[in-house]
Write a structure and sequence with these properties.
It is a single chain. The protein is mainly α. Among the domains are: about 140 residues, no CATH class; about 60 residues, no CATH class. Helices cover about 75% and strands about 0% of the residues. It is globular.
C-alpha cells in the first residue's frame, strides 16, 4: 500500500466521505461537522506523508493549498503572540479555531486538486440532496415564523445565508451539468428555491450577491449556448421580480431599515443601531488603527487605538461596539490586527484561487465560490467565523472535485484495478 507510485484509492474514499459527512453536519450541527473535518484533514496529511512526490509534482496546483495553510498559520502565530486573558479572549479563540480550519482546508484541498479519480457521479447527487434539505428547511422556518429571520440552527441568520449560498452554488453547477436536455429548467428551478431560502434569512448581502454570482457562473460556462444564456438570464430576472412580489413584506422591511440607516447616517442616535453607519465607522477606525501599527498589533491595542479615534471623532462611536469582535470587512480587520503582511497573504490567497479557477482548471464552480468569498468579505469577516470558514473551505474542495479536473480523471470503476497493483 505504501510503495505505490500513486496514492491508494482508500485515502480518497476516506477523505471525501469525511468531507461529505462534515458538509451535511455543518448545515445543522456545526460542532460535529467541524470535528469530522479535522479528522478528515488528518487523513489527508497522512496521505501526503506517504505520497509527497505525487502531491507536490505540479507547482501550479500547490499554490492555493499552500496559501490556505499559510494564512491559517499566520492567524495561529498572531494569536500565540498576543493572546491574554480579558475581554478579548473570545476574539483570540475564534481566530485560533479558524486558523486550524484554514490549515485543514489546505491539506484536504491539496489532495483534491491532485485527485486522479472522478468522484463526480457520487458527489453530485449527495450535494443536491443537501441543497434541497437546507433550502426547504429554511423556507419552512420562514413560513412557520413569519417576519422572523430564518437561521437554520445557528444564532445568526447571516451564517445561514452563507451556508445556503455555498451549498446552492454547488447545486446550481450540478444542475447545469447533470442533464443536458433539461438543465435550463433545472437551473431556473434550483435558483428559485435557493433565492427564496436566502430571502427568508433577510441577509442583504446574500440577497444582492447570490443572483449576480449565479448569473456570472452561468454566463461563463462554455457548455451553455447563447440562446440558453439569454433565456436563463430572463428567467432569473423574472424569478427575482416574482420573489419581490410574493415576499414583499420581508424585502420592504430590509429596504426600510436601509433607508432609515441612510437618513440617520450623520447623526448620533444612541437608542438605535445604524447598520450602515456602524460599518462605515468600523472601516474608518479599523484602517486608522492599522495605520498606527502596520506590522500588526494585539486586539487590546487596536481597541485602545479605536477608542482614542472615537474621542476625536464622536460620529465613529458605533465602532466601539465591535472592537471585541471584528470590523465587518476581511481586509480591514486583517490589516487592523495583522498589518500589511496579513493583508498580503489574504490577497495572494484570493489570487491563487482565481488562478486555479480561471487558468489551471477553468472551473466555473470554483470561480463562483471564490467570488462569493471575496464579495462577502467586503461586508463581513468570513475567516473570523468558524462556521463560515468551514462551509466555504468545504465548498472550495467540492467545487474542485465536481468541476473540470486539471489532470486526467479516471472512472471510479477503475479503482478496483488500481487497488490490486
Amino acid at each position: 500500500m505504501f510503495k505505490r507510485e500513486t496514492p491508494h484509492p482508500v485515502f480518497s474514499y476516506l477523505i471525501y466521505f469525511g468531507c461529505l459527512v462534515s458538509f451535511f453536519a455543518i448545515a445543522f450541527n456545526w460542532s460535529q461537522g467541524r470535528n469530522v473535518f479535522f479528522v478528515t484533514s488528518y487523513v489527508a496529511f497522512i496521505a501526503l506523508i506517504f505520497n509527497p512526490k505525487y502531491y507536490t509534482k505540479r507547482v501550479d496546483l500547490l499554490w492555493a493549498p499552500l496559501l490556505f495553510v499559510t494564512v491559517g498559520l499566520g492567524s495561529i502565530f498572531w494569536v500565540a503572540a498576543y493572546k491574554q486573558p480579558g475581554e478579548y479572549i473570545n476574539l483570540y479563540r475564534a481566530f485560533m479555531v479558524t486558523g486550524k480550519l484554514l490549515i485543514a482546508t489546505g491539506f484536504v484541498l491539496l489532495i483534491a486538486v491532485n485527485e486522479r479519480i472522478n468522484f463526480t457521479q457520487l458527489i453530485r447527487p449527495l450535494l443536491l440532496i443537501l441543497a434541497i434539505s437546507v433550502n426547504l428547511y429554511v423556507i419552512y422556518q420562514g413560513i412557520v415564523h413569519w417576519n422572523v429571520r430564518s437561521t437554520l440552527n445557528f444564532d445568526q441568520a447571516t451564517i445561514a445565508a452563507y451556508i445556503i449560498t455555498a451549498v446552492d452554488i454547488l447545486m446550481l453547477y450540478t444542475l447545469l451539468h447533470i442533464n443536458k436536455k433539461h438543465r435550463i429548467i433545472l437551473f431556473a428551478l434550483g435558483f428559485t428555491i435557493g433565492y427564496t431560502a436566502i430571502l427568508h434569512t433577510q441577509t442583504r448581502a446574500a440577497i444582492l450577491v447570490f443572483p449576480v454570482i449565479s448569473i456570472v457562473m452561468f454566463l461563463v460556462d462554455k457548455k451553455i449556448t447563447k440562446k440558453q444564456k439569454y433565456i436563463t438570464c430572463l428567467s432569473i430576472i423574472l424569478v427575482i421580480i416574482l420573489s419581490a412580489f410574493f415576499l414583499k413584506n420581508i424585502i420592504n422591511k430590509r429596504v426600510d431599515d436601509f433607508r432609515t440607516d441612510m437618513k440617520t447616517l450623520s447623526k448620533l442616535v444612541p437608542q438605535r443601531e445604524n447598520s450602515v453607519g456602524a460599518r462605515i465607522s468600523m472601516y474608518k477606525t479599523g484602517a486608522m488603527a492599522g495605520n498606527q501599527h502596520i506590522l500588526g498589533q494585539s486586539a487590546e491595542q487596536r481597541g485602545a487605538e479605536i477608542a482614542a479615534i472615537v474621542t476625536k471623532h464622536p460620529l465613529l462611536s458605533e465602532a466601539l461596539n465591535y472592537t471585541t469582535i471584528h470590523m465587518h470587512n476581511e481586509l480591514i480587520d486583517t490589516y487592523s490586527l495583522r498589518g500589511i503582511w496579513g493583508v498580503a497573504l489574504l490577497l495572494v490567497l484570493y489570487a491563487s484561487l482565481l488562478y486555479l479557477a480561471l487558468k489551471t482548471q477553468k472551473n466555473t464552480a470554483l470561480l463562483a465560490i471564490t467570488m462569493t468569498i471575496i464579495i462577502y468579505g467586503l461586508s463581513d469577516v468570513l475567516f473570523f467565523s468558524s462556521e463560515a470558514t468551514g462551509i466555504f473551505g468545504l465548498a472550495v474542495i467540492f467545487s474542485v472535485l465536481i468541476g473540470k479536473h486539471a489532470s486526467n480523471p479516471i472512472k471510479i470503476a477503475d479503482n478496483q484495478n488500481n487497488a490490486n497493483h
